[in-house]
Amino acid sequence: MRKPSLLPLGLFVSLLLVAGAAWAQEPAPTAGGGGGRTAGLGLGVETTLTSGLGFGAGVGGSLVGPTGALFVYDAGRFRVHGLLGFASEENDDDIYALAGRFFFNLHQGTGSDFALGGGLAIVHFSNDGPGPDLTDIHLEGAAQLRAFLTPNVALSASLGLALVIPDEGNTVIAFGGQLAASFGMVYFFY
């Protein structure tokens, strides 16, 4: 019997929370310069560059990169991302992901910014079958573009170099970017 994945439900709930908070919020206070945004905390969803590459080892023969709930501290000149993900495969194997990213803003416009940074992720595959549990390490260096739809809501896309060091199998190096299906969205509480 197939065990349903909680990831789509988590993403849907995150989007509802973001939409509800956006509806209830008054406009954010603005500060001089930097596109009118101030430092603050943000919640949303995001994926790393290694998500969806579809190669390598892992439970069920698939390499899985971190995708999940995003927690952001944006200090204006730099920002820190924390990502927490979970998925359950049909054979009752579970995947847990924890990632951290750091970006330094190189340029900030009135409704967008451009940043360089990198990240580290740990992806653990809990195997309920006869095979061993696996833990992969994901490293990335990335450029990230953010476009602010409102002062509090940002869409992001990343491009960069990713390195996956699997628990078993060969190390994978990839150059890629997030496409339309894998972007980030954050609501900031300024």
Give the key terms:
eight-stranded antiparallel beta barrel; 1 helix; Porin; mainly beta; elongated; 190 residues
What does this molecule look like?
The protein has an 8-stranded antiparallel β-barrel with strand order 1-2-3-4-5-6-7-9. It is mainly beta and 190 residues long. The longest helix has 18 residues, at 7-24. A hairpin with a 3-residue loop joins strand 2 and strand 3 (78-88). The protein is elongated, with a radius of gyration of 17 Å. Residues 1-13, 15-35, 54-63 and 178-182 have low confidence and may be disordered. The chain has one domain (7-27, 41-189): Porin, CATH 2.40.160. 9% of the residues lie in helices and 51% in strands.
- How can the largest sheet be summarized? 8 strands, antiparallel, barrel
Shape: elongated
The beta-strand count equals: 9
Fraction in helix: under 10%
Strand order of the largest sheet: 1-2-3-4-5-6-7-9
C-alpha end-to-end distance: 45 Å
Question: How many DSSP H or I helices?
Answer: 1
Task: Give the overall pLDDT as a whole number.
Answer: 74
Structural class of the secondary structure composition? mainly beta
**Rg to the nearest angstrom?**
17 Å
**CATH fold-level label:** Porin
How big a fraction of the residues is strand? over 45%
Poorly predicted regions:
1-13, 15-35, 54-63, 178-182
Helix and strand run = HEEEEEEEEE
CATH class: Mainly Beta
